[in-house]
Amino acid sequence: MEDKLIIRGARENNLKNINIDIPKNKLVIMTGLSGSGKTSLAFDTIYAEGQRRYVESLSAYARQFLGNMEKPDVDAIEGLSPAIAIDQKTTSNNPRSTVGTVTEIYDYLRLLYARVGKAYCPKHDVVIESQTIKQMADTIDQYADGDRLMVVARVVKRKKGTFKDYFADLLKDGYLRVVVDGQNYMLDEEIELDKNKKHDIDVVIDRIIKKEGYRSRLVDSLEVGLKLTGGEVIVQNLTTKTEELFSEHLACPICGFSVPKLEPRLFSFNNPLGACPDCRGLGIKNEVDDDLLIPDWSKSINEGGLRYFKTAVGTNRIEWQRFLILCKKYKIDLDKPLKDFTKQELSYILDGSREPISYEIVSDSGNVSRTTKFIEGVRTLIARRYEETTSKWSKEWYASFMSEHTCPTCKGRRLNDQVLSVRVGGLNIAEFTEQSIEDALHFIQNIKLTDYEMNIARLVVKEINDRLTFLNNVGLGYLTLARRAGGLSGGEAQRIRLATQIGTRLTGVLYVLDEPSIGLHQRDNEKLIKSLQDIRDLGNSVLVVEHDEDTMRASDFIVDIGPGAGVHGGQVICAGTPEEVMNCKDSITGQYLSGNRKIEVPQKRRKGNGLFIEVKGAKEHNLKNINVKFPLGKFNVVTGVSGSGKSSLAFDTIYAEGQRRYVESLSAYARQFLGGTKKPDVDSIEGLSPSISIDQKTTNNNPRSTVGTVTEIYDYFRLLFARIGVPYCPNHNIPITSQSIEEMTTQIMNEEDKTKLIIMSPVIYGQKGTFKDLLDSLRKDGYVRVKIDDEVKDLSEEITLDKNKKHNILVVIDRIIKKEEARSRIYEALELACKLSKGKAVVEIPGRKDIVMSESFACPHCDFSLEELEPRMFSFNAPYGSCPDCKGLGFKQKISEQLIIPDKEKTLARGGIEPLAGMDDQNIYIKKLEIVCDKFGIDMNKKMKDLTKKELDIILRGTKEAIEFNFKTRSGNVMNSYEPYEGILNNLERRYFETNSEFIRDWLGKYMVELTCPTCLGKRLKKSVLSVLINKKNIIDLTDMNIDKLYEFFDNLKLSKEKEKIAKLLIKEIKSRLEFLHNVGLGYLTLSRSASTLSGGEAQRIRLATQIGSQLTGVLYVLDEPSIGLHQRDNQRLIDSLLKMRDIGNTLIVVEHDTDTMLQADYLVDVGPGAGEHGGRIVACGTPEEVIQNTNSLTGDYLSGRKKIEVPLKRRKGNGKFIEIKGAKENNLKNINVKFPLGNLVLVTGVSGSGKSSLVNQILYKALALNVYKSKVVPGKYRSIKGIEDVDKVIDITQDPIGRTPRSNPATYVGVFDDIRDVFAQTKEAKIRGYEKGRFSFNVKGGRCEACYGDGVKKISMNFLPDVYVPCEVCGGTRFNKETLEVKYKGKTIYDVLGMRVEEAIEFFENHPKIKRKLQVLMDVGLGYIKLGQSAPTLSGGEASRVKLAKELQKKPTGKSVFILDEPTTGLHSDDIKKLLVILNRIVDNGDTVIVIEHNLDVIKVADYIIDLGPEGGDLGGQVVCVGTPEKVAKCKESYTGQYLKRELNK
What we know:
There is one protein chain. The chain is α+β, with helices and mostly antiparallel strands. About 35% of the residues lie in helices and about 20% in strands. It contains 54 helices and 56 strands. The longest helix has 23 residues, at about 450-475.
């Protein structure tokens, strides 16, 4: 197990119960046909289980953000690594934390009760069912006659937004009124809501008076309200000012007691939905305790008997005055002992007056306040102020008079009656948690559930059972889940965390624990030790700080630190087995251990795997530069006297470094929540494990994500510029600095004694004006002189300035002769100068240049200034530094005039403006446009091309002058307003940014284009931030360099000694990350490149480079075709990076087809032999040489050359026509001219980043789509294009899914399902029943099962657990209703046909030529193994692209079609590529053109014509290196493609 990853019974997707042993710490390749099951084994089984086990150790709260981790279908995986290091936390003292919440068992219980719980009426003990409309109406019938009722539907609950579109939709649907946050509005008036606040919105359905005959109207209103909200309606009784919620979900049929929809949050006592409303879920209430308020009942009030007023007696305090008035009103004797007070008298002083009292209060300042109101008693006063105060001190003061009492409403159970009415197995959730863990375990093991309930709850019940078992096994069976966490001892809390970790069943983990035996009776010690040994025996390293002798004796290895505490400790006294420590004379621990034994010493010691965690030079806290080894796979104990340095070594050194390395592999965003991770004071730690499994994620499509942010290099840049960047004034191009007043004073004091100083404040710099008010103000403030335009003037004189000239004004603060005793005077003058001029001071020394100083980064010659440099200033995702115009995006989204007016031959009235086309005459936008055109005399029947610029500007950009709009809407409401016309461009743009509707946003998005921000010119940051430079470069200048140039910049960067010391670690980290990116072939990228534009291969390699940088060992890395998009030239760099990861002690499993990568692997696993149902088996495994020799292996056949893709004997010459692009300049293209010969298989090649996608996807495809289909796309930059007239169709074949939902499938995509439904509709049985083809669709009503809406399954949401899919109870998973399935063709139902593989269906429908022809195309593209009804999301990228090709191949070739494919070999085996080439050649042989972007040499060598771009990537690419046949390109010495192609052609 130490050197193997053992998989047993893997059945995920199409895997056939496979068992396989995979060597660890090796570079392992998995290969096989597309769809053979490689990904199912590598990712969906091994990686998924590692991730799931890791996620299981996180909190439930964290899991909801990480997504559901479903257990893969596999019997066992042993030896899986890594997982996590244990996070040691103290138990929360929060009164809301319980044993149940800390262990997360309560989270599973909430899920269990929400999914299978049944509500019972607390009065009648009957199961609560959902309420019918009749039951709701019956309840309302009990209201008094004449009551005014309002039926409302709460459509929005506590959500942010303006909801303008929603209000407009409601108005269109005929609703008139809404209630928003308690305020009534008419829907035809303007409703302005704060988009940043949460709102409640009720739609008023009807207002009714309860009287005879009202019921039918009430029922109609209830029905409308229920439909609008999905099952809930509120009836407000305006007479009694009450409201009642009615639900179609759960209600008692006898008394109407109702329960909201059962969901997990309902069962949380930390959520207002489920918490007891009286104690707010605490189970206790803090109430004023009379004995704490009156500690000595023998004292009178005047003697301080009321402790609250003890210090107030005899004072003029307002509270005391008010209390005296209360006592006077009820004739309370202040000198009578409190024990002699009557019950009534005590009630007056404690609870307050029974009626309002008129009184006056006189304050210390003599103010008189008169009022009439109730006066609080001292008890009610304390209780109110305790609730209201926000002061911690005050709260503690009021709490000193209070004690905890069980809540009288919930009786301490924390939850409300509705929640407590829900039971599982006869117990509500509170009763379950009140059992001991031992009893709860017995209950859950014997719980009785129906089969349907158990299907839903199986995972939850198992999890609860496991966690209770672990708690019981560590000696905590006596605890209850309801026990407060704050009441647990340290030992109990530690063992709870230990039990939680045992439950994850992870291997290869280093566990660090701190005295887990604390508070544990010797009776339970054996259980604890057994648990620790169980963790070890799973293959983990366990490091425990411990004093317990039994634990030490049962350990494998002990490290004793001492000899004393504090400065007298920190050394390793002894390290070895327990026996060796016992024999060590210098060890105090050994002396104690050599006494009587209580736990038997194991007969045999494990030798472990021979590997160690080796710590060198540990100096944290009091550690004395110690070196120590911990054997891996062992149970290690660290011991020593208190303060000797155990925790410093175990936690602050080893654990902290493991945590730091783990955190370094996370994103910067995640790290800000995890806090700083400082490197401990240690020279090195070798062999530290584990860290993390690689998280395989798609690149972020957020426009704010760049290569710099994804790799986190930009985060280091921000820190670097904040720490050593030098701000420059953009106006004067001089560096600016900041100084404190103390630093300014020190600088002046360094001048020679008797130096004359004039300290001035520069209040005006280069501004026009007379400044009369400023000069008057200075006179009033006592200033005597000013220096204006280099001339000193006395303020007592009349000073007249030319208002049209710019002036400089400096106020003379003081004139001082420098001497030691003048320091304080200089300091004060500088401080006053800075205060007057917002941080600036000028010191004039006769005969020398003025000294200008500033508290902030400010230019001495103008008003330009910067605040203190911080990393957040350099973030384009934060308002502190981002460009205020584009908000840090670098571009602005605008509605394109070209896209909304695609055809200028059309008129306004006939759809000339496309977004308005199709809107009826009553639409408010059409009405407004008609009014504007009428006012300005614009003919709506004039063609768009004939409109004048002025007319078009009015229509598109609106008017400044107000226009009267008066018209009736479709619903009959009158719109009357007087306002400027907004204009169509402005209107569409505003609606795009304001709408909450995804549909509206997608619709308007088609008309939007991105334009470079005119303010920042695409640089994303404020001008002031861009003025901060390092070596004459700002932060964006650096991100615009490619990675190779950037590395060179930092390699040659010269800094001062001080700055070098500050930046040393940062620059080292930046260079390290840049080097990793270079090594995986990404040196051509710039850090400013948007992450969304990266190819899949580039994104994958960026993640790989990030992981290499973490330098972790013992990690299992799973990668998916990292060579995607990588030219052969860069392939070896990538392979070297993978080998480096392996060599530092990691295991790599790579799904890959690349020949070079396979041949350099240590171990090769070939999965197959075929695809889909024909795959899922291990065909061959071993070294590459062993697989090559295996004649059963298709991969071996291609690696050995037994099979290969042949070079064509003859190249096609095409049809003599070309598409010619001239002046292509998109991205890095260098104004190139390119010809694409038609009627050929054309390959566009070149190194990564050479400009292939820019040329083909951004220019060629978009230009063809725009001209052929009038598509709403904007092509990349080019001067002209010729030959478009020879193209009538352009098809872009991508690897994107053919559909996003399980309802999409290959049969519907290629159109064969329509034909199959026709066949079923023509059967005799269908005709008798009158069924048409629509009856045989699971997407529409009629034939589908309505219980599951044609899905075949019902999804039960399980929150942080995977969703459970339960087969529909009605249709049994067939998706169709019973009547539809009674219609059969050749003995098969429509459901049976959808379950057929293509190869089966082609035989079944052999007598239907149309169906057979379409199925034959699917067979031709190598997809005979897929099922007709196979869910689209389950198809691989390669399969999806071939389904798309099949659809196009059905169509009659025109000889004028252009097919464009971007790296179609992604995910394809050599044999799949062979099949793909057959299809592509067939297309070309039909006379059409195929243009392919590709790096795969097997495809390149069969091309008719190659366009090779380069010579390098990024700035050094974008040129045409060579064009022609493969033979011609192979002879081109400048072409990297040619160099590798030459070898391939010569094989």
